[in-house]
Amino acid sequence: MPAQPPYRRVLLKASGEALMGEQGFGIDVSVVDRIASDIAEARSLGVEVGVVIGGGNIFRGVAVASKGGDRVTGDHMGMLATVINSLALRTSLIKIGVDAVVLSAIAMPELCESFSQRQATQYMDAGKVVIFAGGTGNPFFTTDSAAALRAAEIGADALFKGTQVDGVYTADPKKDPTATRYEHLSHLEVLQKGLAIMDTAAIALARENNIPIIVYSIHEKGGFGDILKGEGRCTIVADA
Ligand SMILES: Nc1ncnc2c1ncn2[C@@H]1O[C@H](COP(=O)(O)OP(=O)(O)O)[C@@H](O)[C@H]1O
Ligand SMILES: O=c1ccn([C@@H]2O[C@H](COP(=O)(O)OP(=O)(O)O)[C@@H](O)[C@H]2O)c(=O)[nH]1
């Protein structure tokens, strides 16, 4: 019998950018299927899973703003991108027999249900994987902030940031090859050192609500389950 993971309920923030695989844009279904199988493994370990997916594989609001376009409209488009990704993940989960539902911060009843904290917790209590689409529903925010917000709302024991790198480094490892990885650090240290692994609003919200953040590589098959079992490579951001 494997040891029971120390987490009862977690929020997984899955990088949108990761979903495009080698394509450079859009959705590589084999990547979404693999992330779905990682979530299925977490469920089989008895862990309740909520998911926020980014939209960077399709659209980011800042890309519009940097070309002189309207930021708010750009952000609306980015939030719609997260709905597309969420529907793809739901499809992959259902395909392998994992009960999953999409709750969107932006009402689009023909496609999915609208978010409410009450409905989300009811579904999670019932063992469904709840995918939170549409970010926070507000422009000028990111899906990292949405992940911290939903983690607080559902009472998650931890926020897992499944991203492009396998932890938090002393500097961006994609730009500085001499950067070294932390095993552990506090939310405050991430903020004070200006480590840009997540936006400051997300870190601050997690800190205020005492939610540990676990940063790991979403590209690693089985990585999510490994960390839940206390085995994987990651950085744990938590106050002592
Ligand atoms: N100190 C740091 N440690 C680790 N990654 C960092 C750091 N500073 C910047 N990064 C960059 O942050 C990226 C992850 O953030 P983000 O762009 O929000 O990814 P995503 O939302 O796709 O998961 C990494 O790919 C890495 O290049
Ligand atoms: O609460 C939110 C969450 C997301 N977005 C928009 O959606 C895009 C995609 O999200 P994000 O960049 O966080 O995705 P990721 O980096 O995880 O792929 C962002 O760039 C924003 O334009 C937003 O406006 N409000």
UniProtKB/TrEMBL annotation:
Per the annotation, which location comes first and is thus the protein's main one? cytoplasm
Q: Does the keyword Translocase apply?
A: no
- Swiss-Prot/TrEMBL keywords: Allosteric enzyme, ATP-binding, Cytoplasm, Kinase, Nucleotide-binding, Pyrimidine biosynthesis, Transferase
Binding residues for UMP, per the UniProt record? G55, D75, T136, G137, N138, P139, F140, F141, T142, T143
Q: Where is this region: Involved in allosteric activation by GTP?
A: 21-26
Cite the binding residues for ATP.
K13, A14, S15, G16, G56, R60, T163, Q164, Y169, D172
BP-aspect Gene Ontology terms: 'de novo' CTP biosynthetic process; UDP biosynthetic process
Q: Which reaction does it catalyse?
A: UMP + ATP = UDP + ADP
How is the activity of this protein regulated? Answer: Allosterically activated by GTP. Inhibited by UTP.
Tell where it localizes.
Cytoplasm
Which GO molecular function annotations are given, in alphabetical order? ATP binding; UMP kinase activity
Which Pfam family is one of this chain's hits?
Answer: AA_kinase
For the Aspartate/glutamate/uridylate kinase domain, which residue ranges apply? 9-216
Question: Which pathway is this protein assigned to?
Answer: Pyrimidine metabolism; CTP biosynthesis via de novo pathway; UDP from UMP (UMPK route): step 1/1
The domain of life for this entry's organism is: Bacteria
Does the record carry Kinase as a key word?
Answer: yes
Q: Supply the EC number(s).
A: 2.7.4.22
Q: Name one GO cellular component term.
A: cytosol
Q: Which NCBIfam families match?
A: pyrH_bact
As for family, the record states: Belongs to the UMP kinase family.
What function is annotated for this protein?
Catalyzes the reversible phosphorylation of UMP to UDP.
Q: How does it assemble?
A: Homohexamer.
Which protein are we looking at?
Answer: Uridylate kinase
Give the source species. Aquibium oceanicum
Q: Which gene encodes it?
A: pyrH
